[in-house]
Amino acid sequence: MGVSPSSALQIVINNPGVLDQVYKVDQAKPLGQGSFGIVRKAKVKSTGAVRAVKSISKQLMKEKMNILMKEIEIMKAVDHPNSIMLYEIFEDERNLYLVMELCAGGCLHQRVRSSGHLREADAAVAMRQIFRAVFYLHRSHICHRDLKAENILLSTSASLAKTLLKVSDFGLSCTFRPKQYLLQRVGTLTHMSPEVLEKKYNQSCDIWACGIILYFLLSSDVPFQDEAQILRGRVSYSSKAWWDASQDVVAFLGRLLVKAARRQSAEQALQDQWFEKCLPATVEPVLRFTLLDDLRTYRELNKFKRAALSTVASMLDEAHISESRDIFASLDTDGDGLLSVAELEERLRKISLDKAMHRAYGRREIERIFQDMDDVGAPLKDFSYTEFLAATFNRAECLTEAVCREVFNALDKTQDGIIDFKELVSGNMPAPWWEPVLETDVAVAVVVVVLVFVVLLLVMICCRCC
């Protein structure tokens, strides 16, 4: 199978080792079971972080292996708080094992069915997260093509205001070029847009599907049942569930469930007045004073160390990343999954509690944070979601020897206890990540053995970043 690196972790996540050496898999009741495999709960042995492991039979999937490979490649490219994360891939003679985020709250469809339908405020909370994920996917030139409430997972069983929603199931997703038309009729009929039925569409088909999801959240039903109804495009609001609906949400649905030429983009949808009026007030997390120093120090590290820290972040449990995740979500005001200079500067200017921080960091100092020190002449680089987590997690608590050894194993693709020069340049990370490494930390040796690597992380990274 393909060995392209994960965009989030900046390493190849295909692990040649044995799944049970890294994860303790719960062999009791599975979380789910489908035609091609089983999903089980697992824990990272070094950190206790809970994950979902999807085992897929190679024999059963042999006729559709190319579809699975496309799905995996798209999951590798996704890095957003509201999209499911693929952490690692294992393989043996019989199965592929995909290690992913565990969403213990079930799916959005189940949540709606159990409550009858949602209040508008709760629907706004859910749809804002879904649109943020779709905005990110479209900015990354990915069209999901099967958005529906069943494919929106909840991180926990807490209320919608207190849990993260995650877009999942990229089995029908594809990449696209600007102005390209997609020609395959794929997806779930009740969520297909008219142009999908006509086999000439673009990424705006996802926006139509978001409209169907919103309609479902508020009524526990879908507006269209068959092709004729979809092509006719008449949305009914006559059921009892719509008696108390606001004019704003009906108007919003009218901007989503409309011909593609007049349909809103995800970015436009996020700016709709319905969200402004319906979203409940939230308290923005306070930025700790050391946050900007953490971001600046992270960007000053070479790519090898940054990739190692990103791998560490992928192994941490919810308790160690929740604060950083919430801060990132509050700073990423447009929801595109990237933290920009303008967004950070605006936050510092806006919040009175951060006046001291704003005085310490003017425009020039903020721009330095976004400078890639491995490529000084390049344009300023936004922080991705995983980069932000990697830059801001608590080093003193999380960088244990056990974690460092697991990071080493993730980079040691031959599993011989040594990372040699051939492995450094073999594609385990995107080129030319290893060039600055050869000029710094490992220039003194042809190989990096496990003890040296552990010391490298614990001393050179922990001491510089704590």
Automatic annotation (TrEMBL):
Residues reported in the UniProt entry to bind ATP: 54
Domain EF-hand: 319-354, 399-434
UniProt key word Protease: no
Location of the Protein kinase domain: 25-275
Keywords: ATP-binding, Calcium, Kinase, Membrane, Metal-binding, Nucleotide-binding, Repeat, Serine/threonine-protein kinase, Transferase, Transmembrane, Transmembrane helix
InterPro entries to which the protein is assigned, alphabetical: CDPK_Ser/Thr_kinases (IPR050205), EF-hand-dom_pair (IPR011992), EF_Hand_1_Ca_BS (IPR018247), EF_hand_dom (IPR002048), Kinase-like_dom_sf (IPR011009), Prot_kinase_dom (IPR000719), Protein_kinase_ATP_BS (IPR017441), Ser/Thr_kinase_AS (IPR008271)
Reactions that this protein is recorded to catalyse: L-seryl-[protein] + ATP = O-phospho-L-seryl-[protein] + ADP + H(+); L-threonyl-[protein] + ATP = O-phospho-L-threonyl-[protein] + ADP + H(+)
PROSITE patterns for the chain: EF_HAND_1, EF_HAND_2, PROTEIN_KINASE_ATP, PROTEIN_KINASE_DOM, PROTEIN_KINASE_ST
Entry keyword annotation includes Repeat: yes
Cofactor: Mg(2+)
SMART domains: EFh, S_TKc
Regions crossing the membrane: 442-463
Enzyme Commission number(s): 2.7.11.1
A Pfam family of this chain: Pkinase
GO molecular function, one term: calcium ion binding
Homology family: Belongs to the protein kinase superfamily. Ser/Thr protein kinase family. CDPK subfamily.
Subunit structure: Monomer.
Protein name in UniProt: non-specific serine/threonine protein kinase
